[in-house]
């Protein structure tokens, strides 16, 4: 079976590489010539653990290819996945222009016996609308919707060993083809759930929105903990041990970011109104998350006696989460920019050495070492919970800083551990001396 994947962004690249690991012949297509050239030279555009190894392995095995030639790729393909971006418009709706641009380009060339699968996150009704759009162009082809549930930083594992695979289909042909594509997962008893198109489309939004609600909820519980004397980490532990709730996405912090939660909650709120349904809980979650960054900024300013002018503030981690170089909707953007606007002298260490971040932040110093980053610092601010930060020698940090002040927005450390080294420690949702 030959597979074509249109789009080599996060979803398309990971999916294409992993499909080739399943043993299929995969061609990944993109109109960015430099990106394709880099991929042909085995240079990844994203930071994702385990991806480079699989890419090199399957390119050498002759199963994985990268090209800008969409026409040739879809002509020979048995199944075509569209995995292009659907960013938010100013009104919160999903921008489907990249979807329809891909459809326009593939329509004259796609094999009529192939199955066209949308993997991008799209509003309910989009897959059927794409089918109708193709029919107007004289192309009658089976369509399906196959959402991804990949966590950045763990995407390869999530693809190869998912909790479930959701596939929306319109007919038996599409179902049979996609069952064959995911056949390697049957050996591991991974649930493969076939649904209608609309159910599959909504399942992606519903899943992401629910996880966003959990994050917003625990952050509000953290606010309550700070004024009532409770410890949010212990509250989250107590909640998470309840199997009905689970312990995932109950870590208090600066709010969610990334490529999915912000745009998907906005899109769900927008298109639900078109159906005459108001998503009140989702709307409040969006508001809560938007205000979260301001609360974290205020926490930092409060810890610095409301004045950061000319103070050296060492930032630990700026990507939206650990184990990725992705800066999309990262809480760090608003936080760091507020500190710069306040006159602070900012130094940053992020283990990903994100080129995205370097293009975003101006008037900052970039450090290649976590200890050098806090040399003569007036305060340390932890924004992203990279694993290596947990192993930092706090005694060495204490020697390096000018003022022993740490603001930990991810609750990486125990309060007593940090304070035992003489730091004044501020975290989220916990009582301090």
- In the predicted model, the low-confidence regions spanning at least 5 consecutive residues are none
Query: How many helices in DSSP terms?
Result: 18
Adjacency order of strands in the biggest sheet: 3-2-1-4-5-6-7-8
CATH structural architecture of the largest domain: 3-Layer(aba) Sandwich
Assign a percent range to the helix content: 40-55%
- Which class best fits the helix and strand makeup? alpha/beta
> CA-to-CA gap between the ends?
63 Å
- Beta-strand level of the residues, as a percent range? 5-15%
Largest sheet: 8 strands, mixed
> What is the residue-mean pLDDT, rounded to a whole number?
96
CATH class of the largest domain: Alpha Beta
Rg over alpha carbons: 23 Å
Could you explain how this protein is built, in words?
- By secondary structure, this protein is of the alpha/beta class.
- The protein folds into three domains: 2-195, Rossmann fold; 205-287, N-(1-d-carboxylethyl)-l-norvaline Dehydrogenase, domain 2, CATH 1.10.1040.10; 291-426, Rossmann fold (3-Layer(aba) Sandwich), CATH 3.40.50.720.
- Helices cover 44% and strands 14% of the residues.
- It has helices spanning 10-21, 33-40, 51-60, 70-75, 97-106, 126-136, 155-160, 172-181, 183-186, 197-228, 232-240, 261-274, 280-303, 331-341, 355-360, 370-373, 394-400, 415-419, and strands spanning 2-6, 25-29, 64-67, 79-82, 115-118, 142-145, 165-169, 192-195, 312-316, 345-349, 364-366, 379-382, 405-408, 424-426.
- Strands 3-2-1-4-5-6-7-8 form an eight-stranded mixed sheet, with helices on both faces. Strands 11-10-9-12-13-14 form a six-stranded parallel sheet.
- α18 links the parallel β13 and β14 (424-426).
- α12 packs antiparallel against α13.
- The longest helix has 32 residues, at 197-228.
- The mean pLDDT is 96.
């Amino acid at each position: 079976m030959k597979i074509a994947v249109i789009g080599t962004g996060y979803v398309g690249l990971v999916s294409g590489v992993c499909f080739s690991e399943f043993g299929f012949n995969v061609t990944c297509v993109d109109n960015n010539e430099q990106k394709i050239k880099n991929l042909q030279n085995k240079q990844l555009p994203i930071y994702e653990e385990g991806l480079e190894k699989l890419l090199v392995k399957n390119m050498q095995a002759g199963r994985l290819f990268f090209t800008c030639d969409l026409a040739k790729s879809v002509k020979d393909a048995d199944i075509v996945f569209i995995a292009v971006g659907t960013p938010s418009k100013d009104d919160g709706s999903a921008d489907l222009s990249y979807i329809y641009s891909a459809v326009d380009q593939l329509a004259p060339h796609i094999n009529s016996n192939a199955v066209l699968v949308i993997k991008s996150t799209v509003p309910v009704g989009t897959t059927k609308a794409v089918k109708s759009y193709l029919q107007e162009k004289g192309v009658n082809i089976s369509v399906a919707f196959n959402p991804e549930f990949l966590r950045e930083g763990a995407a390869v594992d999530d693809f190869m060993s998912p909790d479930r695979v959701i596939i929306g289909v319109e007919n038996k042909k599409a179902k049979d083809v996609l069952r064959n594509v995911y056949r390697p997962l049957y050996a591991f008893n991974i649930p493969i759930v076939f649904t209608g198109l609309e159910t599959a489309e909504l399942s992606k939004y519903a899943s992401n929105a629910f996880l966003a609600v959990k994050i917003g909820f625990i952050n509000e519980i953290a606010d309550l903990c700070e004024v009532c004397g409770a410890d949010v980490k212990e509250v989250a532990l107590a909640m998470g041990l309840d199997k009905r709730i689970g312990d995932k996405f109950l870590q208090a912090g600066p709010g969610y970011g990334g490529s999915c939660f912000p745009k998907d909650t906005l899109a769900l709120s927008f298109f639900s109104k078109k159906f005459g349904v108001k998503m009140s809980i989702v709307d409040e979650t969006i508001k809560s998350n938007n205000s979260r960054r301001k609360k974290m900024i205020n926490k930092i300013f409060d810890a610095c006696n409301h004045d950061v002018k000319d103070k050296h503030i060492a930032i630990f981690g700026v990507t939206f989460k650990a184990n990725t170089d992705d800066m999309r909707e990262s809480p760090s953007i608003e936080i760091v920019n507020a500190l710069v606007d306040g006159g602070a002298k900012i130094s940053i260490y992020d283990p990903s050495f994100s080129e995205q971040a370097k293009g975003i932040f101006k008037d900052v110093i970039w450090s290649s070492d976590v200890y050098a980053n806090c040399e003569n610092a007036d305060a340390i601010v932890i924004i992203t919970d990279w694993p290596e930060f947990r192993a930092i020698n706090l005694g060495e940090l204490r020697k390096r800083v000018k003022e022993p002040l740490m603001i930990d927005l991810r609750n990486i450390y125990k309060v007593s551990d940090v304070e035992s080294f003489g730091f004044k420690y501020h975290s989220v949702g916990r009582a301090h001396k």
